[in-house]
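Following up on my earlier thread - several people asked me to post the actual chain instead of describing it. Fair enough. Here it is, all 112 residues.
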Amino acid sequence: MIVYELSFRNNNQLVFKMFDKATKMYPDAKPIFHSDRGFQYTGNVFISKVEEAEMTQSMSRVGKCIDNGPMEGFFGLLKTEMFYGKKFKSLEELTEKIVEYIEFYKEDFKIN
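Reply from S.P.:
Thanks for posting it. Predicted structure:
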């Protein structure tokens, strides 16, 4: 994980903001950008962003969720450890806990 962005909506703005944050943080990186086949990643605007950043776009194959196995596993653990059987007083408290969780693992793996 290079960067992350939290939102209450899964939309283009969320993905664009995260992508822009990553490319600003690492302007010389030219990685393979792997994603699922969500509408956010298949639209012309996003494809143009990837091309402008001189990256290669890679997507999960239809019916082959194993391509996203590492991230799906992380999200599964996050849900198990953070949500099941827990109650939060506010969305702000939930957001704080998610950020703490992600930052803990980022530090554990020495990711910037």
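The mean pLDDT is 85. That should answer part of your original question.
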